[in-house]
Description:
- The chain is an alpha/beta fold.
- It has 4 helices and 5 strands, in the order E-E-H-H-H-E-E-H-E.
- It has one domain (4-144).
- The protein has helices at residues 17-29, 48-57, 59-72, 110-121; strands at residues 4-5, 8-12, 81-89, 95-100, 134-144.
- Strands 1, 2, 3, 4 and 5 form a 5-stranded mixed beta sheet that branches.
- Strand 3 (81-89) and strand 4 (95-100) form a beta hairpin.
- Helix 3 packs antiparallel against helix 4 (110-121).
- It starts with a strand and ends with a strand.
- Mean pLDDT is 77; it is low at 5-37.
Amino acid sequence: MGPLLVAVALLSGPPRRDAVHQLVKDVVANPSGVEDGGLDVSHLPFTPESIKMVVLSFQPRIQACYEEHLAQQKHEKAPQGTVKTRFTITADGYVKGAKVVKTASSLKDAHLHDCVVAVLSTMEFPKPPNGKPQLIEFPFNLKVQR
């Protein structure tokens, strides 16, 4: 069985430098997940839909990474593109070996990649039913919504 592929488009508004810097600093400081206390994954099945649900619950943190990337850029038009990620969900539902697949990503900023990996590393997923680690590939299509 190959990697589980899940895709999602994350949209963000115009960057707000002070708020964005604080959000990025909080990425690792709040490992429990989303601001409302996190998503309880203990009763979710291990499916592509539940994996997408977990990742979407972290959408504000991924958006903060992207907005931080935009705040550092000097372009007239905000760059948009893909950050393809790969990580393993362990038998216990934790993330191991999170990384950005640079050759398959159009957004090449190292700080953006580091921030996305930090967010991925804090996620907890439903446990795989077979008790074996599961390789996940998840492309983030990032663009600004005006």
